[in-house]
Amino acid sequence: MESLTEASTRALILLFSGDAELWGIIGVSFRVSLTAVLLATPVALMVAAALAFIRFPGRRLAVSVLNTLLAVPAVVVGLSLYLLLSRHGPLGEWRLLFTQSAMVLGQIALSLPIIAAMGHAALQDTDPRAWETARTLGAGPVRALLTLMSEVRYALLAAVIAGFGRIIAEVGSAMMLGGNILNYTRNITTAIALETSRGAFAQGIALGGVLLVLAFALNTGLHWFQGRSRLDPKYLT
């Protein structure tokens, strides 16, 4: 087994030499996770707005269910979708199992509750009179909602970043739904798990370094947007 120094050196060589397999794995991760968060965000924001502004029976229960979904492990989401998409499952005819589309579905299920919960909290912090004011001035429901979202846009962007950070680093759902197929569904986290089990640490270290840099960038952006969202709205224009 190669030493840590040797593995780290090889990892740097892989990263900066443009190794096709390594960067292909990174590309799969970003393609799947960006697709998932882009698809999840509109739905999540609609859920957040409905829970924040619409009074309906069972609303508090819906908020409780949403908050509970935040704690669901990725492997449970993966197992649930696996059973649905497997050959003998109710959605088996779609033949999505072990495809990037299945991975996207799993990551949508993981990111949507985070974006919706954080978006709901942000929208609840808006002045309740703003909705009535916008409607009184002639704005339609959609225009009024967009106006309110504009007021808390930094908090909503922080929610999207948090959702992306959740799914780019998850392994359970991606492994179960994607199957870890080289050049197709193998992403950063599943590749790290595979290479570590083989005792070949160079690629794992390289991919782990990419995740660390990404985590730092996402957390920096998250804190910046959260900080901006606490400022008075007149400074946000």
The CATH superfamily bears the name: MetI-like
CATH architecture: Orthogonal Bundle
Order of helices and strands: HHHHHHHHHHH
Beta-strand portion reads under 5%
Examine the coordinates and then state which fold CATH places here, giving the name of the CATH topology.
Answer: MetI-like fold
What value does the average pLDDT take? 88
Report how far the terminal alpha carbons are from each other: 57 Å
Number of strands: 0
**Spans of at least 5 consecutive residues with low confidence:** 232-237
- Secondary-structure content class: mainly alpha
- Biggest sheet, in brief? none
- Count of helical regions: 11
Overview of this structure, please?
- With 237 residues, the chain is an all-alpha fold.
- It has one domain (4-235): MetI-like (MetI-like fold), CATH 1.10.3720.
- Helix content is 75%, strand content 0%.
- It has helices at 4-16, 20-53, 59-69, 74-85, 100-124, 128-136, 141-151, 153-168, 172-178, 188-198, 201-229.
- Helix 1 crosses helix 11, helix 2 packs parallel to helix 5 (100-124) and helix 8 packs antiparallel against helix 11 (201-229).
- Residues 232-237 have low confidence and may be disordered.
Key terms:
237 residues; mainly alpha; MetI-like fold; globular; disordered C terminus
Summarize the structure.
With 237 residues, this protein is mostly helical. It has a single domain, classed as MetI-like (MetI-like fold, Orthogonal Bundle). It has helices spanning 4-16, 20-53, 59-69, 74-85, 100-124, 128-136, 141-151, 153-168, 172-178, 188-198, 201-229.
